């Protein structure tokens, strides 16, 4: 099974996005405090 997209809801978007960028080895590309989108391999991760 391959996951195509994951959306996470949080009260602290920058902190959670930073955690997943470190975990997935993806460079920081956004400082938006409302919504960030992380692309890692074949999966898109939305943090809101």
Give a short summary of the structure.
The protein contains one helix and three strands.
Protein traits:
48 residues, alpha+beta, 1 helix, three-stranded mixed sheet
Could you characterize what this model shows?
The protein is of the alpha+beta class and about 50 residues long. It has one domain. It contains one helix and three strands, in the order E-H-E-E. A three-stranded mixed β-sheet has the order 1-3-2, with helices on one face.
SSE layout:
Blueprint: E1 5-8, H1 13-24, E2 36-40, E3 43-47
Parallel strand pairs: 1-3
Antiparallel strand pairs: 2-3
Taken together, the total number of domains comes to 1
One letter per element, helices H and strands E, the order comes to EHEE
Distance between the termini: 25 Å
Structure classification: alpha+beta
> In percent, how helical is the residue content?
25-40%
The largest beta-sheet arranges its strands as 1-3-2
What share of residues are in beta strands?
A: 25-35%
Number of helices: 1
Q: What average pLDDT do the residues reach?
A: 86
């Amino acid at each position: 099974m391959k996951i195509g997209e994951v959306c996470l809801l949080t009260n602290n978007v920058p902190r959670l996005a930073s955690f997943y960028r470190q975990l997935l080895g993806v460079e920081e590309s956004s400082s938006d405090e409302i919504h960030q989108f992380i692309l890692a391999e074949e999966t898109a991760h939305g943090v809101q």
